[in-house]
Amino acid sequence: MLSPFVQRKVAMAFYKYDQSKNGLLEKEDLLLIGKKVAASFGFKESDSKYQEILEKYTLAWDRYLSAADTDGDGKVSLVEFLEARANMDSSQIEKNLEYNKYMFDCLDVDGSGTISFKEYQISLKALGETNEENIKFAFDSIDTNKDGTISRDEYAKVRSNYFNSEDIEDPSKWCYGAF
């Protein structure tokens, strides 16, 4: 059973991804995030980079979030989302560390191999975080080696810890912005 602290974090992530605000996660929610990110970088629908961003978010649904859809209706409820996390064994948590490296590609829009503050800022704004101070604090908190960027390994570890760590001081709690 998940602790109340982890449940709170998982629920927060769920509601950030629920772009339609209908209480369900669907592939379209991830596509809406991708469209916001692409538009924030000035890409147009006809640009290959715009399409690449949407493909990454589509794969994020296909490879990860759809697995929580236990009733096969193409939608993930908060209950399903929490149950999927609660039912993960240690081997699945390890696999998710690899998945988190893939999710990194959704944020590394320029393909530099790191997430810049601008990329992180745009992704959090796409998820609904509007407070600039919170965004800066979150970025600084999860930039664990303090080099001004977030590496693939940093991001994978922080994101994994977000869904697993019971430590209320762990910087991963800022992964999705204000906590």
Order of helices and strands: HEHHEHHEHHEH
Structure classification:
mainly alpha
Count of DSSP E strands?
A: 4
What is the name of the CATH topology?
Answer: Recoverin, domain 1
Text of the CATH class: Mainly Alpha
Q: Any idea how many domains?
A: 1
pLDDT < 50 runs, ≥5 residues: none
Shape descriptor:
globular
Largest sheet: 2 strands, antiparallel
Q: Any idea what the CATH superfamily is called?
A: EF-hand
User: How many helices in DSSP terms?
Assistant: 8
In percent, how helical is the residue content? 55-70%
CATH architectural category: Orthogonal Bundle
First CA to last CA: what distance?
22 Å
Gyration radius from CA atoms, angstroms:
15 Å
Report strand order across the widest sheet: 1-2
% residues in beta strands: under 5%
Mean pLDDT equals 90
